């Protein structure tokens, strides 16, 4: 390693100056990232009040905030930690908004009428193995789903279309095991609901997700 003699005879490494410059550059980048991350948080708080209409804009901001450089600039070890610490929203909801942004453009997503409908259409595209471009063409074609045009049909009708698409796609390996586990869980839940003489609807809404529709009193007894 090359050295040079400093005033007073002390030898210093020739690359000390470079190291110092790198440190300053890193510090400036960290400061910029922190400022940007804080601005993203502020924007999320601003949008959150009107999430029904601003969900797509929130998804775009969340995607930026999910970058490691952003959440680390806020002193967090993960994106999920930022969501919890600042009480933005649950991780599942955040991931849902981000997936909508990844698969649909803003005009088409907002035209579908809301978060749940847009996300259901995204899941339908995934079930049918559609690329984002093919999904855009599907939305533009506005086909009948459940007896109504896609932009006017219900979320439930889209979910039934998702189930139908899933049934047409053969399952293998881990996917088959996950689907079997979901079906088994749904069966056990139905048995418990019958045993307790409760009223609730159990449905397998995707290969790995089970939904239970019940009121608060039913949930208390079911979980008690």
Model regions low in confidence, pLDDT < 50 over at least 5 residues? none
The total domain count is 3
Structural class of the helix and strand makeup? mainly alpha
Strand order of the largest sheet: 1-2
Order of helices and strands: EEHHHHHHHHEEHHEEH
Average pLDDT over all residues: 84
Q: Radius of gyration over alpha carbons?
A: 25 Å
Number of helices: 11
Number of strands: 6
Estimate percent helicity: 55-70%
Largest beta-sheet characterization: 2 strands, antiparallel
Task: Kindly describe this structure.
The protein is mostly helical and 224 residues long. It has three domains: 26-103, no CATH class; 106-169, no CATH class; 173-223, no CATH class. Helix content is 66%, strand content 8%. It has eleven helices and six strands. The protein has helices spanning 16-48, 51-65, 68-73, 79-85, 91-103, 106-111, 115-127, 132-141, 155-168, 173-195, 216-223, and strands at residues 3-5, 11-13, 144-145, 148-149, 201-204, 210-213. It has a two-stranded antiparallel sheet with strand order 1-2. Strands 3-4 form a two-stranded antiparallel sheet. A hairpin with a 5-residue loop joins β1 (3-5) and β2. α7 runs parallel beside α9. The longest helix is centred in the N-terminal third of the chain and has 33 residues, at 16-48. It is globular. The N and C termini lie far apart (70 Å).
Key attributes of the depicted protein:
11 helices, 224 residues, mainly alpha, two-stranded antiparallel ribbon, 3 domains
Write a compact overview of the structure shown:
The chain has eleven helices and six strands. The longest helix is centred in the N-terminal third of the chain and has 33 residues.
């Amino acid at each position: 390693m090359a050295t040079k003699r400093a005033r007073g005879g002390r030898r210093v490494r020739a690359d000390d100056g470079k190291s110092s410059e790198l440190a300053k550059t890193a510090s400036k980048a960290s400061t910029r990232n922190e400022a940007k991350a804080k601005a993203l948080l502020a924007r999320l708080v601003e949008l959150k009040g009107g999430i029904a209409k601003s969900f797509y804009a929130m998804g775009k901001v969340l995607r930026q905030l999910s970058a490691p450089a952003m959440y680390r600039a806020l002193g967090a070890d993960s994106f999920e930690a930022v969501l919890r610490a600042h009480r933005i929203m649950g991780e599942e909801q955040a991931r849902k908004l981000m997936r909508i942004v990844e698969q649909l453009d803003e005009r088409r997503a907002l035209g579908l009428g809301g978060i749940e409908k847009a996300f259901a259409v995204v899941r339908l595209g995934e079930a049918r193995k559609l690329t984002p471009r093919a999904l855009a063409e599907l939305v533009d074609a506005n086909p009948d789903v459940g007896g109504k045009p896609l932009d006017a049909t219900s979320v439930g009708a889209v979910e039934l279309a998702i189930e139908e698409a899933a049934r047409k796609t053969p399952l293998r390996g881990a996917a088959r095991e996950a689907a079997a586990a979901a079906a088994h869980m749904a069966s056990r839940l139905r048995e418990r609901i019958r045993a307790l003489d409760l009223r609730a609807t159990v449905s397998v809404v995707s290969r790995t997700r089970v939904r239970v529709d019940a009121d608060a009193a039913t949930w208390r007894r079911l979980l008690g």
